[in-house]
């Protein structure tokens, strides 16, 4: 199962370190069992911990993506299609996985699968022994759906105020963090349902 | 995409003050309280979500606002968009102490699912997970199997099982198992009907839908699975997809004694295992417990998936799904065999055939890993030799597919996870380290930490020396792999090598047969037991040292060396330690010249040299000849400082009779002369651009070592005293020294003085500089007669008095 899904910024490797890696959207499915904290601000602390964990993952994904891009001699902007009508070739987008040891930053060991598309990073935080082929496919699917339905390629839109759509997509394609074995026709069917319920 | 406008929006959301937020909340409340909340409400909630989620600190929201969000979420006539936003905001604020969501008025299962997502995010302080699970099961019990909205409920059940499996009762697990059997095996094989929205031209009778098809377009031959397609789907087909998606986790978590114990229910049927081997059909007709029936159906489902994966999919997405299904099928079969060994025989034949099919298909290589893991886990029980499978896996796969980051990661994870299962086959893993290093060399950032954990298992006394050479040559391996990709005839869709470096000059030269032999050795698949000097290859591949991938690999090597040495020192005996030190000495100037690589490696090697000497002090005497050669051959100290200091220190510490009886006076004298000559050269030579000055630490170490050696062979004391006083004079000279700064000169002067002082009392010098092993006992420091500080103080005072009595 997926523990968390996040979208964050990816800065180009050549750019100077202006600004920080920003988490644009994150969704944690269920919560880790937090240790008993009878202090009055335990809930706040839990939330703070959760946010920091997500940020730590985002930073690691950013550096992994940057290293992979440098090693292959490409830049993320190579993916930009000629016109906004063409789909972004997601099978060429950089993709990778790495493991997080127990306690660093999550309580249990987890695996992160990430995908870099132009200046956005998408990441799934999974349990330690998940079907990574399925996770890879799901991540590409989510990225494609988000790029299409949020029209992220047109310069003026951003996803900060479109959380409802992101949630709608996640509820159908990754309900409660469950990875689904969806063949092409199922995906099309779900997409039609989604477009009908959420007209653009 | 992430423009400056977005950055400022984020900034605003973080910086909004509490009073402004209060006003905004009351606006939100007003908008939500309207009968028909319009797009303004949606817009306001979107902004509220951004405000709440943009910062990691808690935002204070009014109680009325929070309550209204909860009510809106549960209200039956709320539009979907608002429901999602309310749920998202409530979830963002979790864990929250003041949540009071109630299930009572929630009708639609979509809403139930959203409420559940908010409750599950609370962290289970008030047993929220249990209550969500219980409620979900109640809904499941009350509905018909083909209920229209169970689709949204199954993921909730799956999540609850995952988070808190102990909260489910036996009859609940039986109920869900029964339902899963129905959905998995008996879903409709007719396509669903299109949901026409009605309209002027729609016919009252919908067109008769046809049967479902396979991914290659043929009509489906058997029951419905996730690899069956059609234009539209029925509800039970949706449930089939979800049921399979949660199947493995359910099988694991719903066992009575936990995931790995076999089901106790099997014990009650002593002939159950033989019967199921003979005929699967007869067991299906008897009424077995739901859990066992589920296992049977799961087995059939997996077999069908394996068969379906042989078909050639028409769409790329389906082809990718086939691969994922293969992996999942093997994993589920593994779980089934763990829980009920009677499945083993049928599974083995199925998987062996699958393995043969996959061996020739590089696109599906990732599915070989769970198969190998299956054979490792169950091979013993079934008396099947997994050796052939492992040989193929370790010999072929990394060579051909090292460039795929996901395969490399999964391969190394497989090695790490299966370590306890290897048993007799651990040798295959150890001998395949050159192939494993290819995965590491190409994908060093994500795999370095994995290898640090894996190295202790790979290191072996027979291959340690070869492995050390391989680790030192790892960046060269990266360059060689890049070269291999450029030269290989198989062209893929896009270039796999570093495209920023076009046509390096070494491309043509590498076809030379002399280099070919060396390249073949570097790119070998198994430990060969021999070592080859790759210096010509280092020169050939020089143009590639600026490749980013090579640089990344070079940065990872020092960490790996540390891990290697800490593993080796656990079991290395004297002979192996000697060999390793010889490698260190030999390779110090024969490294691939990636910028800064040599310096970093030297730092590690020098500290490891000292560690090895501390473990086996007699190696200084064993390798006296080689160490002497090293000291004598270091013509310039530049870039050898770390190694030289380490060697000098080791010699000073351990070249004495107390550590090894074979130490002779000649040896001490020879080392003394070599070090003296070196120190002389170093201090006399003028620094220039090519030879920067020698660091004072190295000078101090050399001086100390000379003194130590002199204290053991006291004929040398006059020589060393003379030398030290010359050093002191040089350091103290009032003329601005071109060689050293003031601080450094001061340090050298102090050290020279200390050493001179010590040498004035030779027996004390011996005691201080060549302490016997008992010095580490506390007695030496507490006993007033033998304590070292006391002895030193006494000596100093005596010497000072003596100096005062001497004329001049």
UniProtKB/TrEMBL annotation, chain A:
A GO-annotated cellular component: lysosome
Superkingdom per UniProt: Eukaryota
Record GO biological process: double-strand break repair via homologous recombination; endosomal transport
InterPro entries attached to this UniProt entry: AP-5_subunit_s1
Any one Pfam family match given in the protein's UniProt record, by short name: AP-5_subunit_s1
Protein name, per record: AP-5 complex subunit sigma-1 isoform X2
Source organism of this protein record: Leptonychotes weddellii
Lineage: Eukaryota, Metazoa, Chordata, Craniata, Vertebrata
Gene: AP5S1
TrEMBL record, chain B:
Domain AP-5 complex subunit zeta-1 N-terminal TPR residue range list: 1-280
Region called Disordered, residue ranges: 255-289
SUPFAM superfamilies per record: ARM repeat
Gene Ontology cellular component annotations, sorted alphabetically: AP-5 adaptor complex
AP-5 complex subunit zeta-1 C-terminal TPR domain ranges (all copies): 450-798
Segments forming domain AP-5 complex subunit zeta-1 ARM repeats: 321-438
Source organism of the structure: Leptonychotes weddellii
Listed Pfam families: SPG48, TPR_AP5Z1, TPR_AP5Z1_C
Gene name of the encoded protein: AP5Z1
PANTHER family: AP-5 COMPLEX SUBUNIT ZETA-1 (PTHR46488:SF1)
InterPro entries in the record: AP5Z1, AP5Z1_ARM, ARM-like, ARM-type_fold, TPR_AP5Z1_C, TPR_AP5Z1_N
Bias kind Low complexity: ranges: 273-287
Record-given protein name: AP-5 complex subunit zeta-1 isoform X1
């Amino acid at each position: 199962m997926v523990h968390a899904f996040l979208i964050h910024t990816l800065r180009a490797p050549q750019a100077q370190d202006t600004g920080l890696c920003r988490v644009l959207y994150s969704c944690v499915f269920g919560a880790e069992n937090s240790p008993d904290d009878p202090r009055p601000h335990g809930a706040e602390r839990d939330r703070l911990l959760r946010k920091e964990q997500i940020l730590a993952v985002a930073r690691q994904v950013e550096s992994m993506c940057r290293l992979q891009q440098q090693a292959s001699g490409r830049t993320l902007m190579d993916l930009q299609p000629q016109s906004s009508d063409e789909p972004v070739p997601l099978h060429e987008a950089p993709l990778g996985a790495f493991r997080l040891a127990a306690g660093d930053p999550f309580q249990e060991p987890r695996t992160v699968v990430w995908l870099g598309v132009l200046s956005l990073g998408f990441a799934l935080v999974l349990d330690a022994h998940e079907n990574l082929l399925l996770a890879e496919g799901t991540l590409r699917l989510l990225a494609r759906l988000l790029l299409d339905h949020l029209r992220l390629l047109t310069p003026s839109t951003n996803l900060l105020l479109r959380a409802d759509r992101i949630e709608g997509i996640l509820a159908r394609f990754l309900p409660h963090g469950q990875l689904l074995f969806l063949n092409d026709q199922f995906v099309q069917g779900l997409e039609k349902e989604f477009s009908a319920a959420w007209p653009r | 995409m992430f423009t400056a406008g977005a950055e400022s929006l984020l900034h605003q959301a973080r910086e909004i003050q509490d009073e402004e937020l209060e006003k905004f909340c009351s606006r939100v409340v007003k908008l939500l309280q309207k009968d028909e909340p319009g797009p303004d409400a949606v817009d306001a909630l979107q902004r509220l979500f951004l405000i709440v989620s943009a910062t990691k600190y808690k935002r204070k929201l009014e109680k009325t606002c929070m309550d209204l969000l909860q009510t809106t979420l549960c209200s039956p006539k709320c539009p979907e968009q608002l429901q999602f936003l309310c749920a998202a905001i409530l979830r963002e604020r979790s864990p929250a102490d003041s949540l009071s969501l109630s299930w009572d008025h929630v009708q639609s299962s979509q809403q139930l699912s959203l409420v559940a997502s908010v409750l599950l995010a609370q962290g289970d302080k008030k047993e929220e997970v249990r209550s969500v699970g219980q409620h979900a099961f109640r809904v499941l019990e009350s509905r018909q199997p083909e209920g229209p909205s169970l689709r949204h409920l199954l993921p909730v059940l799956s999540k609850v099982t995952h988070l808190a499996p102990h909260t489910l009762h036996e009859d609940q697990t039986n109920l869900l198992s029964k339902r899963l059997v129905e959905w998995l095996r008996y879903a409709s094989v007719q396509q669903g009907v299109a949901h026409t929205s009605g309209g002027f031209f729609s016919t009252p009778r919908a067109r008769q839908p046809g049967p479902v098809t396979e991914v290659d377009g043929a009509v489906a031959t058997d029951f419905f699975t996730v690899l069956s397609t059609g234009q539209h789907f029925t509800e039970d087909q949706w449930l089939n997809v979800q049921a399979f998606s949660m199947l493995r986790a359910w099988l694991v978590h719903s066992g009575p004694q936990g995931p790995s114990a076999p089901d106790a229910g099997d014990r009650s049927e002593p002939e159950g295992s033989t019967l199921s081997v003979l005929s699967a059909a007869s067991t299906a007709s008897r009424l077995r417990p739901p859990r066992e029936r589920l296992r049977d159906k799961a087995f059939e489902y997996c077999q069908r998936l394996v068969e379906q994966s042989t078909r050639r999919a028409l769409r790329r997405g389906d082809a990718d799904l086939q691969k994922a299904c293969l992996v999942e099928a093997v994993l589920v079969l593994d779980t089934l065999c763990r829980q009920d060994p009677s499945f083993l025989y049928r599974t083995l034949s199925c998987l062996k055939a699958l393995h043969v099919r996959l061996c020739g298909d590089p696109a599906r290589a990732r599915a070989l890993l769970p198969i190998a893991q299956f054979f490792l886990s169950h091979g013993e029980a079934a008396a099947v030799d997994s050796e052939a499978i492992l040989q193929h896996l370790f010999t072929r796969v990394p060579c051909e597919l090292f460039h795929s980051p996901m395969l490399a990661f999964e391969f190394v994870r497989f090695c790490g996870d299966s370590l306890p299962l290897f048993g007799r086959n651990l040798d295959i893993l150890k001998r395949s380290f050159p192939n494993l290093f290819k995965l590491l060399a190409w994908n060093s950032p994500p795999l370095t930490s994995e290898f640090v954990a894996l190295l202790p298992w790979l290191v072996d006394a027979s291959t340690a020396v070869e492995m050390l050479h391989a680790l030192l040559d790892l960046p060269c391996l990266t360059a060689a792999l890049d070269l291999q990709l450029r030269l290989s005839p198989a062209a893929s869709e896009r270039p796999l090598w570093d495209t920023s470096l076009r046509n390096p000059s070494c491309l043509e030269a590498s076809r030379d047969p002399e280099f070919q032999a060396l390249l073949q050795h570097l790119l070998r698949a198994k430990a060969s037991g021999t070592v080859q000097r790759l210096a010509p290859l280092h020169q050939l591949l020089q143009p590639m040292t600026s490749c980013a991938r090579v640089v990344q690999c070079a940065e990872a090597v020092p960490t790996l060396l540390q891990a290697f040495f800490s593993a080796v020192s656990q079991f290395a005996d004297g002979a192996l330690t000697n060999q390793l030190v010889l490698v260190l000495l030999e390779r110090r100037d024969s490294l691939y010249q990636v910028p800064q690589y040599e310096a970093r490696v030297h730092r590690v090697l020098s500290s490891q040299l000292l560690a090895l000497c501390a473990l086996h002090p007699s190696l200084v005497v064993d390798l006296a000849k080689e160490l002497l050669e090293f000291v004598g051959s270091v013509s310039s100290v530049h870039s050898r400082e770390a190694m030289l200091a380490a060697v000098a220190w080791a010699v000073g510490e351990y070249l004495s009779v107390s550590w090894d009886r074979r130490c002779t006076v000649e040896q001490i004298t020879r080392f003394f002369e070599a070090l003296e000559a070196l120190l002389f050269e170093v201090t006399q030579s003028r620094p220039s651009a090519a030879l920067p000055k020698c660091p004072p630490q190295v000078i101090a170490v050399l001086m100390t070592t000379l003194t130590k050696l002199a204290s053991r062979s006291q004929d040398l004391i006059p020589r060393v005293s003379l030398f030290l006083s010359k050093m002191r004079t040089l350091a103290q000279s009032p003329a601005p020294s071109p060689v050293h700064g003031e601080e450094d000169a001061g340090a050298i002067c102090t050290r020279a003085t200390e050493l001179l002082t010590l040498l004035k009392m030779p027996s004390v010098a011996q005691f201080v500089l060549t302490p016997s092993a008992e010095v580490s006992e506390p007695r030496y420091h507490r006993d007033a007669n033998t304590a070292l500080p006391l002895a030193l103080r006494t000596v100093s005072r005596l010497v000072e008095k003596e100096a005062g009595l001497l004329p001049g």
